[in-house]
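job 3f2a | input accepted
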Amino acid sequence: MKSKKYLPKILFSFIIILSFILGGCGQSTSGDKGNDSKGQKVSIALDSGVFSIPFRVAGDQGFFEKHGVNAEFSTYSFGIDTLNTVISKQADIGIAMDYAALTRLGKGDLKIISRFSLPNPSRSQFIVKDRINKPEDLKGKRLGVQNGTANEYIWARYLEKFNLKKSDVTFLPLTSTAEMYAAFERGEIDGAWFEGSFLARAKEVEDTKVLNDLNDIDFAMRGYVVASEDFAQNKVAVKNILKALNEANPYIKEHPDHAADLAFKELKLPADKVQEELKKDWVFDIAFTQDDINHLQDILEWTQKNALIKEKFDIEDKTAIDPLKEEYPDKTKQLEK
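job 3f2a | predicted structure (337 res):
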């Protein structure tokens, strides 16, 4: 009778001890030991182009998981859409080219945590109908524009470079590159900027030619990783994301075929075109230096002067580079005083 009386207590104690044992085993078998953000869920908003490949490779190859990040992706048309998602607190991290990032840095609590891509200026080309032979011939023509993206900034720089007024042309706002291509193919616009697989397709449209690329307006885009201010304060999580990207970048260089297959699988981009593009048009490497600050400051000053961006803010106040500097000091060495 006495043993039956104490049996429930003994069983309960056994269950408690077993739970501690199993819990301890679970903690010792995952990711980075001693990592405070082990298995932390991070919502990452990505664009639908090659620009997003480092993140997708980091997920596909287990680099995020290796560094204790449970990455969840959502896909949008453009980089600016990803930042809007971060501003609305639907994602922790987004990606955007310089101008698009600047249009949102002054509107929300956002921080740049790293640069991660340097696309070749020649990969963005201005394709026009064959009857257009020089920039002056654009007067009275219909042109496609993606407002709020780097494309808007490129157009503004282009018009200034070739002494054209905005009133000289008619801009047709379009919401995606696919829509831009369709409008160009149907003859609804006379010209537009294209890149990647859509550039190859636009060149195949009858009676068209390449008029310019970004080299002609002395501009080279840069891509940045942008986080919410709250998330940027989590140094451990930010470092782990940077570690994953730092493994993904050399993997892409060594295995462009695998990265291209992933682009087809997740984005339906033609693998052969993506592989070619990865080899010649993209440099993926996390870094942030004084040169990046100068680059962003130059764009900001120009866009404020030309009323594209009205908000006033300091570039350095909109960066959170300490995690990058602490983890990879060589990638920020130009920032050292």
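job 3f2a | The two ends are 79 Å apart (CA to CA).
job 3f2a | closed
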